[in-house]
Structure formats: C-alpha cells, structure tokens
Design brief:
The chain has an eleven-stranded mixed β-sheet, sandwiched between helices. A two-stranded antiparallel sheet has the order 1-2. The chain is built from 27 helices and 13 strands. It is of the alpha+beta class. It is a multi-pass membrane protein.
Length: about 725
C-alpha cells in the first residue's frame, strides 16, 4: 500500500492549541522583557551617544588628538592629570576619546555594543555596570601604572606620562556581563572576542586604555552571570564547546596571529613586553602568514596533521619567548642591559603568549582534531583505500546493521579482515578495545572476524568487547565462547503499508497540522549541497543544543553536523516560508549486501529553541513518507545510549553489576542528554524493538569495559565534570 498524506485532523486532541510546552518555548525572552523593561527604547544608549557627540565636537576630539591641546590634562585622564589635581578627569575623559580614530570607534562601539547590551540587561543594570566599571577600571589602571613606573619598567614609565580617554572600558565590561545572558555557542564566542581584544591590545599596543580593558574584563567576565542575575542568565551556565567550535576558535586564533605578524612589521609600538618591532623581511613575513593561514584551514577542517604542526610551532615560539626573557633577566642581573639589543627579539615574547594560549586550546580540544590526512587514508602499497574508506567500501560490499555507517566516522580505528574482505571498527579507551556494532563482513565470516579482533586486543594488551551488536552477532559470539548482555533496544519503523491513521497516530497528524498552519514544509536534502545560509542555520541549531548541556559533546554512536555533511547521508529540514530552519534530522544509510540502501538510521535530531514544539515529530513522520516513496523497507530511530526496557534478572552476578552501573549512568546522564526521555519519545511512532548487545569475553573484564564504554561516549570529559555529574 502506498503512502498517503496525513489527513486533516478530526480528533479533538488535534484541534487543541499548542500546550504549555509550546507556549513556554519563548519564556526566556518573555522573562527578559519583563526584567529589562525596555524594548526598542534604549535610554542609556541614546543619552550616552548624544553626550559623546556633544563632547567630541566641543573638544575637537573627532578631528584632533587631545594631547595636542594645552588643556588636555583637564579633560583626559592619567597620572599627570590626577597629579595636577584634576580629580574629575576619570569621568570627563570617558566622554571624549584621546585620539580621533579612538573617539569615532568608541562612538560606534557605544551605539552598537551598548545598545545591544541594554536590550539584554535592561537600562538600570546597564547604566550601573557602565559607570562603575569605567571609573573603577580606569582608576585601577592608573594606580597600577604609577606603582610599576617606580620600578623603572620602560613601558610603565611611558604610560605614567600619558593621557587617555573614551568609554570603551565601560562598554566592554557591559558586553562581558551581557554575554552571560546568551546561550551557546554565542556566549563563548563573544567572551573569546572580548578576551582576545583585551589580550592583543595589552601585548601589542600597551596603551593605558588597554590596561583598563584588561582589568575590567578580569572582573566582569567571571562575575557576569551573577551581575546579570538568575532571571536573565540561562539555566546552564557551563557547557563545553562542540567539535566545530574547538576548530573554529583555533583557526581564528591563527588568523589573528597572522594579522598581528603583519601589523608588527608595519606599525611597531613599545608594549609591556618590549618593542614589538620585527626585524623580519617582507618575504619572511609573507611566508609566515601563508603558513599560519594554511594551518588555520587545516584546523578548521579538524586535520590531525595541522593540530600536530600547531603544537610544534607553538612550542617553538614558547621556547624562543622563554629564551628572550632569560636573556633580559640575565642582562639585568649582570648589569649588561645596555649591551642587549631587544628590538627584533622582544616581539617573540608577546607572540609566545598568544601561541601558548593557542597550544592550551589545542591540547584541551584535541578530540576535535582527529580527522586523518588524505594521505593516511590510503595504503602506501597498491593505492588501496584504508581507514574510513575501508569501512565505507566494506559497508557497500557486505551491507550491515543500522549502526554500520557509523564505522566510517574518522575517530575509529580499523582492523581489516583479509580473508573475509571486511573490517571491524573500534576505539581504545582505558585499555579497552570497544568495537562499534557488528564486524562489517559476510555472515559466514563473523566467527573469524571475532577471533581476529580478540587476537589483536590480546597482542596489544587490551580488553576486547563489541558494543551495540545485533542479536545474530551475539548468538555467533556466544557459540564461540564470548558472553553477551543486552544494553539497548533499536527502534524500527517498518515502512511497508505505513499510514498515519487511527488514534495511535494522533500526535503525528497534529504535528503535520501545526506545520501546515505555520507555513513549514519538509525538505530531504544532502546537506553538503545546500547553500551556506542553510548550513549555517543547521550548525547554529546544533551548537545551541550542544553548548548548554553542562557536559562535553558525546560521540561514539552519536554524530553531529560534520557527519551529516557526508554526501551519502540525507538531512531532513523543516523550513518556513522565510527560509528559517526550525528543525533538523540526519539519516545514515543502511545498506543491504547487494549495495542497495534498504533503510535509514536517525542520527542528528535537533530543533530550534523558539521553533514549534512538534517539529521533530513532523520531521520523522515526513522522513517516513519520503523514504517509503523511495522504496526503503524500514527506518531506525536508533537505540538511545544507556536507555533500554530489558532487565537483567536472569544475568549472572557480574552482568547484573554492569547492568546496574549502566542503569545508574543512564539516570545520571538523563538531565543532561535525555536518553530515556528520547527512548520514550520514540514510542509514539509505534516501532518494533530489536535488542542490542554488549559482547565481551569474561565477567572479570566488566568493570574495565564499563569505564571504556563511558570514555568512548565522553572522551573529553574531565574528572571534575564526572565528579559534578555524580554529585548532582
């Protein structure tokens, strides 16, 4: 029977308006609107902008540096102004920039930045942070400079005679506090930009304003959530960046380093760490910039070789920076400072600071840079594909289970089976080799593949296990001396004759009805072929979901946008008439032994927070109809990790222990990842269930196996993350 479009709703439940869950989707914005009491009207921004314009015109700050005026110390502030008794200058200096470029840039920053922040924080809180941060940070910077100047530090001595002006310090502090009201990934992005502006300015410019910026952000960023208040800040303040975020920040850092390399050649200044003038030639600078940009592109793509090269270069600059510091210290101790020429060397010190920060980021996010180089994806002999390409070829040749396409993801290791022309994909964590699903071999070769995998693990000193296998593989393994334990259930929807009729499908028909009223349509696409604007929306939806979980992004049997960009993966989009993506699902192909797609497995399933609540039901039901019309036999909604309906009453003692451990892990992770809620959600599609098994060798291995599986899903989780999880 062919698929039919869902009928118009006739049941009373379908006529109801959106429930409390739908109405609450935008509750955060409503709370902010009530808390701030402002909408389009921005009184603080408007008043500040008008006063800055009047002050800039009156003092001529928009076209002439204040330092050129004889009365500069009565308007601008600094050590000289306060020493002359002009106590009002910290306030007056905020209204007029010390230099025309700074005055105009400060005006733009106030209009754009202050206006946006006032809309997030409200007028009262914005005004308080602006005034307090501006005055306190500027006075603190002047005090620090005065103290350091007494030590003879060249940079501090220079600043002790300088004047500054502008409101940028207060505006940056307001932006830092307002960043606490953002969700992921924009919260992290804005904070990194603010920290980068302060750090680069302090290291390579070293003006009094840069010192004030740094001091303001050192206080405002950590206290931003508390200052913003619980009614404005998101419920989950933490969260870890997703893989793409790790990559983008690393790439952006290298681009910044390349730009600074050019600026230090063209516009050198005396910063806190010395003269930033570079003695490099134009050609040397050009080569350095090209290398940085190539590495940035490799890091953006998550290439392992670019990650290694970044660590090597960062280590080099760190060593050179430490060497320069050592030379300076030695010269000062031996009174030979006059004989040391630091121009051309001192620039390495601030560069070393930036490279050190990049190295820390690369090490912390090392899991995001696991994509092997193209060269390593091929064997050196005969040009036969290896790595993920071997898994891809094996899936096409032999077919596989609903999880088999996950073996093509780059984080896996591979054991090739020459006799059976297949492959086993696995990962190693905590001394455990965790194979992903069934070996990709013909049914007759399963036993041989299991034996080869066991032998590999024993040679390497690993404990072998296979996670989320089919029942057929578990039966073969038990016959060969392995043990098995059900750990999940695959949820399968048979597409033949599927029609969304009757009371069990009320929710699905209601989802179609709501989508129609909202002007939302379903598109099944190859995401890599979509316009950049669409891909950007999909990334934003995914990163918003990942960033606010409070724990790192999970992996292993859970993919993301990068995996959805595979040309053989399909992506379902719920798009309205304006082109806004409200929800996204990605579907992994399930191949039969004759290289024909027989089904599809759900991977990514995410929705926009302010989208209509039933969008996921709409996407899955639409995918059922689409794949049914294409001749697919079934859809797998996949097995939610650590969520299953089975029990272990008949298991041996060791299995019962592991079962309880996995059950407890499921309970602990539920508030963060919602696996059990997801498992319950899938039941509304009337699926049939297929058990998924953990296959292992010995009950004595179960404690390590449990740890290995946990690390496979959370390879980047820190100890304190897990401790906080248990304490919660």
């Amino acid at each position: 029977m062919t698929a039919t479009a869902p009928p118009e709703p006739t049941d009373p439940v379908e006529q109801e308006a959106d429930g409390p869950g739908d109405a609450g989707d935008d509750r955060f914005g409503a709370v902010r609107a009530r808390a701030t009491g402002v909408a389009r009207w921005r009184p603080v921004t408007t008043a500040t902008t008008l006063v800055m314009i009047v002050a800039g015109v009156a003092t001529g700050a928009f076209w002439t540096p204040l330092a050129d005026r004889p009365w500069a110390s009565t308007v601008a502030t600094g050590v000289p102004a306060l020493a002359e008794g002009h106590w009002w200058t910290p306030a007056s200096a905020a209204l007029a920039g010390a230099h025309p470029a700074g005055a105009l840039l400060g005006l733009v920053l106030a209009v754009v930045g202050l206006g946006w922040a006032e809309g997030r924080l409200g007028s009262g809180r914005t005004a308080a942070v602006l005034v307090v941060a501006q005055l306190v940070a500027v006075l603190a910077a002047i005090g620090v400079v005065a103290v350091l100047a007494a030590t003879g530090w060249v940079w501090a001595v220079g600043l002790a005679g300088a004047l500054t002006g502008g409101l940028s310090t207060g505006v940056l502090a307001v932006l830092a506090v307002a960043s606490a009201t953002l969700g992921a990934p924009w919260r992290l992005r804005l904070r990194l930009v603010l920290a980068g502006v302060a750090l680069v300015g302090l290291l390579f410019l070293g003006h009094l304003a840069d010192a004030a910026h740094t001091l303001a952000l050192v206080v405002a960023l950590p206290l931003g959530r508390r200052i913003a208040g619980p009614e404005l800040a998101p419920a989950t303040p933490g969260g870890r960046p997703g893989r793409r975020e790790w990559r983008l920040v690393a790439a952006a850092g290298l681009v910044v380093i390349a730009v600074i390399r050019v600026l230090t050649l063209v516009v050198p200044v005396v910063g806190p760490l010395g003269n930033t003038a570079s003695d490099s030639t134009v050609v040397e600078t050009l080569v350095s910039v090209v290398i940085s940009l190539l590495l940035a592109d490799g890091l953006r793509r998550g290439r392992r070789i670019a990650w290694v090269a970044g660590l090597v270069l960062g280590g080099f600059y760190l060593v050179v920076g430490l060497f320069v510091v050592g030379v300076v210290v030695f010269a000062q101790v031996t009174d030979q400072m006059d004989q040391v020429e630091l121009v051309g060397l001192a620039v390495f010190v601030p560069n070393a600071v930036l490279w050190s920060a990049l190295v820390v980021w690369l090490v912390a996010g090392r899991h995001a840079f696991a994509v092997p180089s193209r060269r390593r994806l091929r064997r050196r002999t005969g040009g036969v594909a290896s790595g993920p390409e071997v898994a891809r070829d094996a899936v096409h040749r032999h077919g596989g289970s609903t999880l088999s396409w996950m073996t093509t993801w780059p984080e896996n290791r591979y054991l090739t089976h020459e006799a059976t022309d297949g492959v086993t994909a696995y990962r190693v964590h905590a001394g455990v080799a965790v194979a992903l699903g069934d070996p990709i071999v013909a049914p007759a070769g399963r036993t041989a593949a299991l034996e080869e995998f066991r032998a590999l693990a024993e040679r390497s000193g690993w404990v072998p296990c296979l996670f989320s296998t089919t029942e057929a593989l578990a039966d073969d393994a038990r016959a060969d001396g392995w043990r098995s334990l059900q750990v999940a259930e695959d949820t399968l929807i048979d597409l033949e004759g599927l029609e969304f009729k009757g009371k069990p499908w009320q929710n699905v028909r209601s989802a179609f009805n709501r989508a129609g009223k909202a002007g939302i349509s379903h598109r099944m696409v190859h995401l890599a072929e979509e316009p950049r604007a669409v891909v950007a929306q999909v990334r934003a939806i995914s990163e918003e979901w990942v960033g606010d979980k409070g724990l790192p992004e999970m992996g292993f049997t859970l993919g993301g946008v990068e995996e959805a960009l595979d040309p053989e993966v399909r992506t379902g989009l719920a798009v309205d008439a304006d082109g806004t993506v409200h929800g996204v699902t990605s579907w992994l192909p399930v191949y039969g032994p004759d290289d024909v797609v027989v089904g599809w497995t759900l991977d990514v399933m995410r929705r926009r927070q302010d989208g209509f609540r039933a969008v996921v039901e709409y996407l899955i039901a639409s995918a059922c109809l689409t794949f049914q019309s294409e001749g697919a036999s079934f859809l797998s909604l996949s097995g939610a990790p650590l969520a299953r309906a089975g029990d272990a009453d008949d298991a041996v003692e060791g299995e019962q222990v592991l079962d309880r451990v996995l059950d407890r892990m499921g309970e602990l992770l539920e508030p963060y990842y919602g696996f059990r809620s997801l498992h319950t959600f899938k039941a509304k599609f009337q699926p049939r269930y297929a058990p998924m098994f953990l296959v292992y060798r010995d009950e004595a291995d179960l404690p390590r196996v449990g740890i290995g599986i946990g690390r496979a899903y959370l390879p980047d989780a820190r100890v304190r993350d897990l401790v906080a999880l248990v304490r919660s």
